[in-house]
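Figure 3 (text version): structure tokens given as input.
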């Protein structure tokens, strides 16, 4: 079952990656790949896994351009929207 919010977050990270160079772009692509995988698994990710991804995004937010940072923020918002739908809430 696809989890639309996580797919949206992955797309936002690919947008951020396109607006970024060097190591930050590679890290964003890796995080987008992780979210794509989590979006299509049989069982959804837990809060801890998503929190680790969001922590990595917060670290990257300071290393990228304003356009990339806006896309990262959009991805973070989409992840939060998904987290509100799973047990335990945010």
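Below: residues designed for each position.
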């Amino acid at each position: 079952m696809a989890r639309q919010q996580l797919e949206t977050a992955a797309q936002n990270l690919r947008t951020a990656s396109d607006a970024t160079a060097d190591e930050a772009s590679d890290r964003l692509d890796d995080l987008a790949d992780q979210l794509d995988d989590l979006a299509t698994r049989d069982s959804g990710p837990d809060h801890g896994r998503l929190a680790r991804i969001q922590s990595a995004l917060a670290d990257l937010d300071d290393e990228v351009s304003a356009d990339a940072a806006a896309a990262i923020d959009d991805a973070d918002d989409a992840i939060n929207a998904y987290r509100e739908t799973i047990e335990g809430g945010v």
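The chain has four helices and no strands.
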